[in-house]
Structure formats: C-alpha cells, structure tokens
C-alpha cells in the first residue's frame, strides 16, 4: 500500500519569508512518480511538478524549488520569498507501478498543508 | 481548449435521491479519474478508467457507479445518496500512465 504524509497541517508566514512544506511517502514500488499540486482559495487543483523515482536532482522553478531525497523518502517543497498569492492548500501525491509493472496512474494524496501568507 | 469540465458545479440532494455527475475532457486523454475531497483527508480515488468502455474501482468505490461510454466523458453516479457522500468531487484526466493528471473545477455536493 502507498501512503503520503504531510505532517504540517497549517503553516502561517509573513510575506517574503521562505517556507518549506514537508512530504514523506511510503511505497514498495521501485518505480514511482511524485507530484505537487496547489489548490488556491478558488478551489481548482493546479499541477506544479512531477518527478520520477530515478531522478533525484533538485529542481528550481522561479521561487519554487523541490528537494527529492530517496534515502529519507521525502519530497519537500520550498517557496522562497513567499507572496500573498502563494496562500493555498498544497498537496503532495504519489503514483506507483504494481507488481506486474503496470501503472494506472492512480494518485495517492497527502492530507494537504494549508499555507497562509500574511502581508 | 476547455480542458476538463464538470457539471454541475453545485448540487443539493436529499437522502435517497440519485444523480449523475458529468466529466468531459477535450484533450483526447485515455485515462480518467474521479476523486472526492473531504476536510483533512486529501483526495481519495473513487473510480477510474484506462480507456473507453473500461472502468475500475479505486480506494472508496462504495455507493458510486461510473460509466465511460465515450472517450471524452466519464460519468459518476450516486444511486441513493447518503449524507456521508457530502463532499467535493473532482474529475481528472491524463494522456498516459502515470502521466500528469489535469483536474476539473470540482462539484460541490451536499446531501441532506
């Protein structure tokens, strides 16, 4: 069974602070994919990043960066110089392959972290 | 491109009533999914489809049925609604597996 844990239920920061959202996962699959989605107050889910289990390079996209560490089963997300528009619920998710090597793309989500950025 | 659309946006049902939620995608995606979102629990997979004419159960399928008669549409049915089905329902689609899933705007359902 797969499991994704986002231990931080809520985080509150002041604008321009850096903030890191933690994600820890469990899977028996040797091949899997990790995702981050953003859910702003309007309610839609916005895709941020996809990373496969063979690629442990960190990634940076503007103010966003992701740190993937297979050794600790973590895929953490950092927002640098946070802005009010970053206020949202952020979800980490996992998709793996079954014993037969088949993946149906089913996502297992974490509980989400509510990020509030105050002006 | 509209992407993934969901109908209706909001609905109130009485216990025991039935309804169908419609998901449509115009991206020619093979894979489609129905999730429900409840406070503090993230999103949980209800049913999914790996292609036209196919459906399969996800993590929380009880009380729901689905159909995928056309590639672009994925219907979620509630035969006899219960208050426990009060939730926000999201549909998603992806081109391949495990591909990036693109989500619809959601349907908020209240069962009284």
Counting helices, strands and paired strands, the structural category of chain A is mainly beta
What fraction of residues of chain A sit in β-strands? over 45%
The fraction of residues in strands of chain B falls at over 45%
- The number of helical runs of chain A is 0
Helix content of chain A: under 10%
Please give a structural write-up.
The complex is a heterodimer of chains A (about 120) and B (about 110). With about 120 residues, chain A is mainly beta. In chain A, about 0% of the residues lie in helices and about 50% in strands. In chain A, strands 2, 5, 6, 10, 11 and 12 form a 6-stranded mixed sheet that branches. Helices cover about 0% and strands about 50% of the residues of chain B. Chain B is built from no helices and 11 strands. At the A-B interface, strand 5, strand 10 and strand 11 of A face strand 4, strand 5, strand 9 and strand 10 of B.
Topology of helices and strands:
The complex is a heterodimer of chains A (119) and B (112).
Chain A: E1 3-5, E2 10-14, E3 19-21, E4 24-26, E5 32-39, E6 46-52, E7 59-61, E8 64-69, E9 74-79, E10 88-96, E11 108-109, E12 113-118
Parallel strand pairs in A: 2-12
Antiparallel strand pairs in A: 1-4, 3-9, 5-6, 5-10, 7-8, 8-9, 10-11, 10-12
Chain B: E1 4-7, E2 10-13, E3 19-25, E4 31-37, E5 43-49, E6 56-57, E7 64-67, E8 73-78, E9 87-94, E10 102-103, E11 107-111
Parallel strand pairs in B: 2-11
Antiparallel strand pairs in B: 1-3, 3-8, 4-5, 4-9, 5-6, 7-8, 9-10, 9-11
